[in-house]
Recover the amino acids of this structure.
C-alpha cells in the first residue's frame, strides 16, 4: 500500500517535471516563432524650410593682371554682365566688392536680391569678356557663383608662360579664413603661405597660384573656408614667347565623387593626342585633368560620348593618390562631347580644349570645362554675350527626359535621350534660359567662335538653402 | 434602615446568559426590592424570558442605545428617591452576580454614609479565577487606567476600598446622587462611563468604593463596555471608542480657559499619535484616531452638556481627587513590567536566517572581491559614463525638485509629472549629498555585493543549508542581465536587479509583519520606478500572492500603494496624452540599442554577441555559434530549475518557475516595444529587467531542487557556479578591462568653456546639434553644465508629437544650420541660447551625416550673430555674440507647476512618510499582554505525518516552553487540532508552523501560512496601552 503510494507520487513528480519541460520548450518556441505584434514609436521630425534670405551670387569680374609685387593686381578691361532672375521682375542689386590690392576699380560684383523675392537658384548671372591685349588674348566666360565653404578648382598652370590667379570673394558679413591647398602632378604642394588667408567681408582677394606652387603643370586647387563663405574662381592666361595663346576663367568643379560628368566639351577642330601617348606636351590638345584626393589609387573608366550620338571612345586610367594626372582625350572629331567618368574611388575632374586657327601652329584660345552636379527640377541659366553660345544637356539616367527651355525667344521642348545629350543654341547677345525638367540633368554653356573658346558648367544651388530634417529631441 | 435597592437589568440578546443573570439575582442572599428589566431591541423570546422572571417593571426600548441610556430610562420610571437610602443596582445580561454580591455592596453603602457608589469585583466570566476589573483610575493627565487587569485572583487586592472610579457592571449607586449627577454621560456610551460618573460623584463630595468581597462575573458581550474580541475590526472599534472617551473627558474636565487650547490641539495630537501608531505597527487605528478627534471637535453640544452637569454638581475642587490618581512612578513601574513581559515573550523567537552561522559573511566577502575585480576601472572614479548614464545634479535640492511635479528641465522644458525613477535618484543622490554623481559609482560598485546579499536572504526563506544560500547569491550576482546592464550603463536595470531579490525576501515576509510589508512596498516602488516594464509581471505576481495569502492579504494589499501614489501624476499624464503604453518606457537617459532576438533573450543576454562570446569564438579557427556555447553552459541551471518539480515542493516550484516564465514574457514583450525617441531612432525598452526576473525564478527553482537532494547537492552547486561563471566570463572581462561601454568619467558632458560659465550662470543654455545618420539633424537644449540623469522625463521622450517648444526649437536649429534670412537672435529671445555645439561626426559615419555636419558648420560659420569659439572634445562650439548672461528665456518660469506641485508633493510625502514609519522595525512592538496564541490550521496539522521525530519533540518542547501554553485558549487550540487530525501527537499541534524546516521553507514561497504563529500578529495587540 505504502509502496504503491510512493510509486504514484514518484510518477506524479515525473509528470510534473515533464510538463514543465514541455511548457518551457513551448514558451521558447512561441517566443522565437510567433511574430508578436510590435510597437515602434515614430521619431518626431520636421523638415525645416530655411527662412527666405537674400540670394547672392558673385561674379569674378574682369581678367586681372599681376602687378609689380605678387599681391597687387590690375584689371584688364571690363567684363559684360548678364543677370537673370525668375520671376523676371524680381530685380537684383549689384553690390561691388572691395577690390583687391593694387587696383581702385570695382572688380568683382555681388548680385543680391531682396529676401523672398526669388526662390533658391532663381538668381543667375554670367559674365563674358574678350581680351585682346598684348599679353593676354582670348574669350572668357563665367557664371556668377554661389559662395561656399569648400571648393575644388581643376585647371590652370604655372609653367613658363602660364599665369594662374585664384580669386577669392567674400560677399558675406563674416570674415572668412581661407586655406588654399594645391595639388600638382607631383602630389600635394607644401605651401604654408596658402593657409589662413583672411578675406574681409565684402571684399575680394587675389592669390597667385605660382606663388604657392611654382612650375606646376597641372594644379588642382582646393579651397576651404571657415568663418564666412567665399566664391572661388581661377583665371589663367597663356602666352607663348610673345604670342598670347588664350585665357579663361575656371569655375568650381564638382566635389570629389566616384562619378563625374563633364557636359558640353567643345572640340573646335578635329585632332588630338592618343590617350596612351606619353609625351603629351603643350595645351593645344583636348585633355582631362583628374585628381584622386584620397589615400588610395583610383581606377577610373572614361567615356567620351559625342553629343550627336554614337558610342564614343572608352578608356581606363589609374590615378595615383594626391597626384594630378593630365590625360589626353584621344583623337577626336570636331564637335561637342560629354565626358563621363566612373571610378572605384572619389576624384575630381575637368576637361580642357583649345581652338587653333587653321594654318597657325599655336592655339588662339583655350577653355576649361569643369564637372558639374545634377540640376534640380527648375534651373535658371544666364547666358552672357558671346559667339556661338550653346546650352548643353546631358542625361545619365535610363529614361529620356523632356526639358522645357524658356528663353527670350520663346519656349521650346528639348528631348534629352537616356544616356545621351542635347544642345540648344542661344542668341549671341546674351539672355536667359529657364529650364524645367525632371531633376538629374547636367548642363553647361559653351562659346565657340573665331579664336574664341569658353565654357562654364551650370551648378545647382548649394545645399545651404535646402530644407533640413530636424529632430528636436 | 437598609436601603431600598432597585435592580435594573438591561437586556439585549437574551438567551442563556439572561437566564443566568436572572437566576443570579434570584439567588442573592439579599434580594433587591425591585427588579426592572430594560429590553433593548429584544426579540419576543427574550421578552418572554424576561417576563417569566416577573419583574416589577419592564420597559421596552426599540432603538439600539447604550447601557447608560437604558439605565437612565429605566430609572426614570421609578418614583423620585425618598432619601439617600434609595439605590439602584446596575446589571445586564453580561453580569452574573454571585449570591453574596448585593449584600456586600449594600453593606458598604450602609456603613459608610459618604460612599455614594459601590462597585463589585468583576471576574472574567470564562475563567472566574481572573479579575476582569477592580476599580479604575486616571493618570495626572487624565488617561483612564484600570487598577487591576487580568490578574489571577488570589485575594491580593481585597484590601482595596476607596478608588477614583469603577466600571458600570454591577454598580450600586444611591439614586439621589444618580439623579443629582444626571446619570451616565450620554457622550460616553461605551467606554469610561463608569469612571466619569464616579469622578463626578467624587467632585460632588461623595466617595466611591470597590467592594472586593462582592463578586460579579462579567462577560464583555458588548452591552456594558466595549465588546471583547481579537478580530481586527473589534480591536479597531475598541481603540477608537477609548480614544473618543478620553478626548471627551479631556474637553469636559479641562478648566474653561484651557478648552480652546485643547480644542486646537486635537488634530495635531491625532497626527502625532498616528505617527506613533505607524511606528508601533497599528496603522488600522489611525482612522479611529482621527475620527475621535474630529467627532470631539464638532460635538460642542455634548461637551457643553457634560461641563454644565459637572459644574452643577461639583462641590469640591479637583485637588480633592488628586491622591486617587495613579502616580507617575506607578505608571513607570507598570510600563517597565509590560516591556519586560514583551521581552520575555520575544525571547523564544528567531528569524531563522543565521547570517553568519550559515556562511553569509563569506558570501559577502566573495561578492565584494568579485565586484572589485569586475569593476576595477571604476575604483576611485568620480562618475560613471555610459550610454544610459549622465551625471546627477550637483545640488540635493535640485535632485528633489526634479523628483517632484513641476518644471521638467529637459529639452525646451515643460510643466509635467516627474518619473518615479527621479525619486529613486533623489534618494541615491541625497545619500551621497557631497557629490551626488558619485552615488552612481557607488551603485555600480555595490550592485554585485548587494544583489548577492538579497539573493542570499531570499534563498534563506527556502532553505537552511548555507551552501545553497551561497549558491543562490553567486548565481544571482553573476547573472548575465546584471552584468549586461552594468556593462551597458543602464542604471534602471541595475537597480531593478539589485532590489528584485530583496523585494522577494520582503514580500515573502510581509503577510506576517507590518514592518516587512511596508519595506516590501517601498522596494516594490523602487523596482517599478527603476524598471516600469516589470510592473505588469510584478502586479500579476502580487495579485496571485494576495489571493493565495488568506489572512495576510491585508498587509500584502499595501504593496503597490506607494508605487501608485508616486506614479499617479505620470499615469494621469500618459493616459491624458492617449499614450498609456509609454508608461513602460525606461526612465533616465534612453539607450539606443539593437532589438535583441528571442534566442539571445532566453540566454539572459541583451546583445547578439552574448557578452563577448562572439569575439572569443571568432578568434578560434572553427566557426561555432556562440549561442550553442552559452546554452550549453546554462543548461545545468535550466535542468536543475526544472528538477524542482521532482522534489515534491510543488507549490514553491510552481511559484518560482511561473515567475521565471513571467520574466521571460516580460523580456520578450519589452523587445517588441520601442517607446522613447532619441533623434531619428526609437529606443527599444530594456529587456534586462524581465530577464532578471526570469533568472531569479530559475535560481530559486534550482535552490529548491538541490535542497530536495540529500546527496551530491554540493557537487551540483559547484557545477552550476562554475558553468554560470564561465558563461559570463567574457562579459566580466570586458568590463574589467574597460572595453565595455561603461567607463569612469569626469562629471562633464559639455565643453569646459561652457561649464566654466555655468558656474556663474547656472542657466547658460547650449544648443547641441548632432548630425544623424539619415542626414537629419538632432537638436537639443542643455542648461548649465549639461543634461543630468535626474532631469530626464519619459513624458518628453515618448511624446508622439512635437510640442510648441520642440517646434520652435526645430525651426531655430534648422535655420541655424542653413543659410537664410533667419534672425538668429530669435534663439536668444525664445530659449536664451548662449552656445551652439555641433557634435563631431565619426570617421565611419554615413556620408549623409558628414554632409549635414559640413553644411551646418558652414552655415554656423557664416552666421554673423555667432562667434566661433573653437574645436572642443565634444564638437565645434560657437557663442552668440549677443548672448546675455541670465537670459530671461533660459530661466525656469517662476511658480512652474504651482499649486499642483505642492499638493502632489504633500500627498506623496504623507503616504511615503506613513509607509516609512510603518517600515521602521520597532523591535517587538507593543502588544496586548493577554494575547491568545493562534490556532493551528488543520491543513497544516495534517501535513505533520511527515514530521521527523526529532522535529516533533522540538516542537512539543517549544509548545511547553511557550509562556502562554497553559492558557485556556492554548488548550482549545490543542483540542481543535486534535479534532482535525486524530492521528496527530497532542502538543505538536500547538507547535508553530515554522518550527519544522521543510514546512517553513515551503510556506515561505507561499505567503499565507508562513510561520504565522511564530510572529506576533500586530492586529491582535489590544489598544489599551496608551501612547502617552
Amino acid at each position: 500500500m505504502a509502496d504503491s503510494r510512493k510509486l504514484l507520487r514518484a510518477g506524479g513528480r515525473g509528470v510534473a517535471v515533464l510538463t514543465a519541460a514541455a511548457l518551457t520548450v513551448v514558451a521558447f518556441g512561441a517566443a522565437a516563432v510567433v511574430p508578436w505584434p510590435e510597437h515602434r514609436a515614430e521619431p518626431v521630425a520636421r523638415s525645416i524650410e530655411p527662412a527666405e534670405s537674400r540670394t547672392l551670387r558673385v561674379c569674378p569680374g574682369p581678367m586681372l593682371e599681376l602687378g609689380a609685387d605678387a599681391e597687387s593686381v590690375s584689371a584688364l578691361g571690363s567684363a559684360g554682365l548678364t543677370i537673370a532672375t525668375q520671376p523676371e521682375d524680381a530685380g537684383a542689386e549689384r553690390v561691388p566688392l572691395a577690390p583687391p590690392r593694387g587696383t581702385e576699380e570695382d572688380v568683382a560684383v555681388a548680385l543680391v536680391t531682396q529676401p523672398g523675392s526669388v526662390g533658391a537658384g532663381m538668381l543667375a548671372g554670367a559674365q563674358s569678356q574678350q581680351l585682346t591685349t598684348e599679353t593676354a588674348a582670348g574669350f572668357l566666360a563665367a557664371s556668377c557663383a554661389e559662395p561656399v565653404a569648400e571648393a575644388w578648382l581643376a585647371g590652370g598652370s604655372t609653367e613658363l608662360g602660364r599665369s594662374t590667379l585664384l580669386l577669392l570673394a567674400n560677399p558675406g558679413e563674416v570674415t572668412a579664413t581661407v586655406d588654399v591647398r594645391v595639388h600638382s602632378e607631383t602630389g600635394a604642394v607644401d605651401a604654408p603661405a596658402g593657409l589662413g588667408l583672411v578675406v574681409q567681408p565684402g571684399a575680394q582677394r587675389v592669390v597667385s597660384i605660382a606663388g604657392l606652387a611654382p612650375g606646376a603643370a597641372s594644379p588642382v586647387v582646393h579651397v576651404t573656408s571657415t568663418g564666412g563663405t567665399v566664391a572661388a574662381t581661377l583665371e589663367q592666361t597663356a602666352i607663348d614667347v610673345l604670342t598670347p595663346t588664350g585665357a579663361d576663367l575656371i569655375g568650381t568643379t564638382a566635389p570629389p565623387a566616384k562619378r563625374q560628368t563633364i557636359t558640353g566639351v567643345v572640340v573646335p577642330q578635329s585632332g588630338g593626342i592618343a590617350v596612351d601617348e606619353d609625351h603629351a606636351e603643350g595645351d593645344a590638345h583636348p585633355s582631362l585633368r583628374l585628381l584622386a584626393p584620397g589615400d588610395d589609387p583610383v581606377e577610373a573608366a572614361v567615356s567620351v560620348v559625342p553629343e550627336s550620338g554614337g558610342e564614343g571612345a572608352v578608356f581606363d586610367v589609374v590615378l595615383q593618390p594626391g597626384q594630378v594626372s593630365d590625360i589626353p582625350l584621344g583623337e577626336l572629331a570636331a564637335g561637342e562631347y560629354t565626358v563621363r567618368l566612373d571610378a572605384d574611388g572619389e576624384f575630381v575632374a575637368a576637361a580642357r580644349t583649345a581652338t587653333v586657327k587653321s594654318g597657325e601652329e599655336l592655339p588662339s584660345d583655350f577653355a576649361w570645362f569643369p564637372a558639374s552636379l545634377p540640376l534640380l527640377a527648375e534651373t535658371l541659366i544666364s547666358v552672357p554675350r558671346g559667339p556661338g553660345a550653346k546650352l548643353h544637356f546631358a542625361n545619365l539616367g535610363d529614361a529620356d527626359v523632356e526639358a522645357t527651355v524658356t528663353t527670350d525667344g520663346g519656349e521650346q521642348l528639348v528631348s534629352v535621350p537616356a544616356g545621351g545629350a542635347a544642345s540648344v543654341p542661344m542668341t549671341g547677345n546674351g539672355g536667359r534660359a529657364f529650364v524645367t525638367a525632371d531633376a538629374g540633368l547636367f548642363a553647361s554653356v559653351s562659346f565657340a567662335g573665331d579664336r574664341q573658346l569658353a565654357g562654364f558648367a551650370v551648378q545647382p544651388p548649394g545645399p545651404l538653402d535646402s530644407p533640413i530634417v530636424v529632430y528636436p529631441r | 434602615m437598609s436601603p431600598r435597592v432597585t435592580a435594573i437589568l438591561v437586556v439585549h440578546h437574551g438567551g442563556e446568559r439572561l437566564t443566568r443573570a436572572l437566576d443570579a439575582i434570584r439567588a442573592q442572599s439579599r434580594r433587591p426590592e425591585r427588579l426592572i428589566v430594560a429590553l433593548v431591541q429584544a426579540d419576543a423570546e427574550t421578552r418572554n424570558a424576561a417576563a417569566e422572571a416577573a419583574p416589577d417593571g419592564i420597559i421596552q426600548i426599540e432603538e439600539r442605545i447604550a447601557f447608560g441610556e437604558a439605565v437612565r430610562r429605566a430609572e426614570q420610571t421609578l418614583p423620585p428617591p425618598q432619601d439617600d437610602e434609595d439605590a439602584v443596582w446596575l446589571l445586564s445580561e453580561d453580569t452574573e452576580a454571585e449570591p453574596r454580591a448585593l449584600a456586600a455592596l449594600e453593606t458598604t453603602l450602609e456603613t459608610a454614609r459618604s460612599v455614594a457608589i459601590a462597585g463589585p469585583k468583576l471576574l472574567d466570566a470564562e475563567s472566574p479565577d481572573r479579575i476582569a476589573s477592580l476599580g479604575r483610575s486616571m493618570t495626572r493627565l487624565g488617561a483612564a487606567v484600570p487598577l487591576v487587569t487580568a490578574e489571577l485572583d488570589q485575594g491580593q487586592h481585597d484590601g482595596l476600598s476607596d478608588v477614583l472610579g469603577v466600571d458600570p457592571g454591577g454598580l450600586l449607586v444611591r439614586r439621589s446622587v444618580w439623579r443629582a449627577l444626571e446619570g451616565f454621560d450620554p457622550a460616553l456610551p461605551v467606554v469610561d462611563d463608569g469612571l466619569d460618573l464616579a469622578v463626578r460623584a467624587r467632585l460632588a463630595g461623595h466617595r466611591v468604593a470597590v467592594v472586593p468581597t462582592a463578586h460579579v462575573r462579567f462577560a464583555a458581550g458588548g452591552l456594558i463596555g466595549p465588546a471583547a474580541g481579537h478580530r481586527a475590526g473589534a480591536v479597531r472599534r475598541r481603540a477608537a471608542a477609548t480614544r473618543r472617551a478620553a478626548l471627551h473627558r479631556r474637553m469636559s474636565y479641562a478648566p474653561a480657559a484651557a478648552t480652546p487650547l485643547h480644542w486646537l490641539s486635537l488634530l495635531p495630537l491625532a497626527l502625532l499619535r498616528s505617527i506613533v501608531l505607524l511606528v508601533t505597527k497599528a496603522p488600522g487605528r489611525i482612522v479611529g484616531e482621527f475620527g475621535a478627534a474630529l467627532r470631539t471637535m464638532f460635538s460642542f453640544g455634548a461637551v457643553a452638556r457634560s461641563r454644565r452637569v459637572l459644574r452643577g454638581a461639583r462641590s469640591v475642587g479637583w485637588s480633592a481627587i488628586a491622591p486617587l490618581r495613579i502616580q507617575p512612578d506607578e505608571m513607570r513601574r507598570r510600563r517597565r513590567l509590560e516591556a519586560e513581559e514583551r521581552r520575555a515573550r520575544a525571547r523564544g523567537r528567531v528569524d531563522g536566517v543565521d547570517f553568519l552561522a550559515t556562511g553569509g559573511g563569506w558570501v559577502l566577502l566573495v561578492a565584494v572581491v568579485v565586484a572589485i575585480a569586475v569593476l576595477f576601472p571604476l575604483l576611485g572614479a568620480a562618475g560613471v559614463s555610459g550610454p544610459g548614464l549622465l551625471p546627477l545634479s550637483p545640488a540635493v535640492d535640485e535632485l528633489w525638485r526634479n523628483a517632484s511635479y513641476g518644471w521638467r528641465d529637459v529639452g525646451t522644458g515643460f510643466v509635467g509629472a516627474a518619473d518615479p525613477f527621479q525619486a529613486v535618484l533623489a534618494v541615491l543622490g541625497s545619500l551621497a549629498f557631497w557629490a551626488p554623481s558619485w552615488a552612481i559609482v557607488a551603485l555600480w560598485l555595490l550592485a554585485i555585493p548587494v544583489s548577492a546579499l538579497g539573493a542570499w536572504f531570499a534563498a534563506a526563506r527556502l532553505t537552511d543549508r548555507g551552501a545553497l544560500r551561497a549558491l543562490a547569491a553567486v548565481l544571482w550576482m553573476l547573472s548575465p542581465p546584471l552584468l549586461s546592464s552594468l556593462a551597458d550603463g543602464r542604471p534602471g536595470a541595475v537597480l531593478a536587479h539589485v532590489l528584485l531579490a530583496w523585494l522577494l525576501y520582503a514580500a515573502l515576509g510581509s503577510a506576517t509583519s507590518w514592518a516587512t510589508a511596508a519595506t516590501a512596498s517601498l522596494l516594490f516602488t523602487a523596482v517599478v520606478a527603476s524598471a516600469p516594464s516589470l510592473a505588469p509581471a510584478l502586479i500579476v505576481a502580487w495579485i496571485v500572492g494576495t489571493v493565495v495569502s488568506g489572512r495576510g492579504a491585508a498587509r500584502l494589499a499595501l504593496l503597490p500603494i506607494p508605487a501608485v501614489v508616486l506614479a499617479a501624476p505620470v499615469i494621469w499624464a500618459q493616459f491624458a496624452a492617449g499614450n498609456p503604453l509609454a508608461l513602460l518606457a525606461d526612465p533616465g537617459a534612453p539607450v539606443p540599442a539593437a532589438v535583441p532576438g528571442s534566442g539571445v533573450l532566453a540566454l539572459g543576454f541583451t546583445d547578439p554577441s552574448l557578452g563577448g562570446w562572439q569575439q572569443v569564438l571568432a578568434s578560434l579557427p572553427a566557426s561555432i555559434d556562440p549561442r550553442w556555447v552559452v546554452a550549453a553552459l546554462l543548461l545545468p541551471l535550466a535542468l536543475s530549475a526544472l528538477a524542482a518539480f521532482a522534489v515534491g515542493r510543488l507549490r514553491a516550484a510552481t511559484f518560482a518557475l511561473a515567475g521565471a516564465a513571467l520574466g521571460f514574457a516580460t523580456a520578450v514583450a519589452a523587445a517588441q516595444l520601442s517607446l522613447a525617441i532619441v533623434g531619428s531612432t526609437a529606443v527599444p525598452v530594456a529587456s534586462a529587467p524581465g530577464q532578471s526576473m526570469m533568472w531569479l525564478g530559475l535560481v530559486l527553482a534550482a535552490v529548491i531542487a538541490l535542497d530536495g537532494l540529500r546527496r551530491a547537492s554540493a557537487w551540483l552547486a559547484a557545477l552550476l557556479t562554475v558553468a554560470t561563471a564561465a558563461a559570463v566570463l567574457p562579459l566580466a572581462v570586458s568590463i574589467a578591462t574597460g572595453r565595455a561601454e561603461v567607463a569612469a568619467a569626469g562629471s562633464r558632458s559639455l565643453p569646459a568653456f561652457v561649464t566654466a560659465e555655468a558656474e556663474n550662470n547656472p542657466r547658460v543654455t547650449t544648443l547641441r546639434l548632432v548630425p544623424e545618420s539619415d542626414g537629419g539633424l538632432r537638436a537639443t537644449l542643455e542648461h548649465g553644465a549639461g543634461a543630468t540623469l535626474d532631469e530626464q522625463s519619459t513624458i518628453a521622450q515618448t511624446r508622439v508629437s512635437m510640442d510648441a517648444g520642440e517646434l520652435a526649437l526645430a525651426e531655430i536649429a534648422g535655420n541655424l544650420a542653413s543659410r537664410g534670412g533667419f534672425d538668429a537672435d530669435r534663439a536668444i529671445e525664445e530659449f536664451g541660447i548662449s552656445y551652439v555645439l555641433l557634435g563631431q561626426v565619426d570617421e565611419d559615419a554615413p556620408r549623409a551625416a558628414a554632409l549635414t555636419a559640413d553644411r551646418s558648420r558652414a552655415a554656423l560659420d557664416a552666421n554673423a550673430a555667432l562667434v566661433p569659439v573653437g574645436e572642443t572634445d565634444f564638437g565645434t562650439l560657437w557663442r552668440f555674440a549677443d548672448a546675455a548672461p541670465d537670459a530671461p528665456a533660459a530661466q525656469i518660469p517662476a511658480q512652474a507647476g504651482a499649486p499642483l506641485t505642492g499638493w502632489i508633493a504633500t500627498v506623496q510625502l504623507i503616504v511615503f512618510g506613513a509607509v516609512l514609519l510603518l517600515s521602521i522595525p520597532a523591535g517587538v512592538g507593543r502588544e496586548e499582554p493577554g494575547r491568545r496564541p493562534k490556532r493551528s490550521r488543520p491543513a497544516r496539522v495534517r501535513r505533520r505525518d511527515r514530521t521527523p521525530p526529532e522535529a516533533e519533540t522540538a516542537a512539543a518542547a517549544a509548545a511547553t516552553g511557550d509562556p502562554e501554553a497553559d492558557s485556556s485558549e492554548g488548550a482549545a487550540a490543542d483540542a481543535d487540532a486534535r479534532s482535525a487530525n486524530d492521528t496527530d501527537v497532542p502538543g505538536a499541534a500547538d507547535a508553530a508552523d515554522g518550527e519544522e524546516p521543510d514546512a517553513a521553507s515551503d510556506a515561505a514561497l507561499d505567503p499565507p501560512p508562513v510561520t504565522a504563529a511564530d510572529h506576533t500578529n500586530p492586529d491582535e495587540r489590544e489598544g489599551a496601552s496608551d501612547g502617552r
User: Anything to note?
Assistant: The helical segments of chain A are 2-33, 209-212. The mean pLDDT of chain A is 89. Chain A has one domain: 56-470. Residues 245 and 364 of chain A are 5 Å apart (CA to CA).
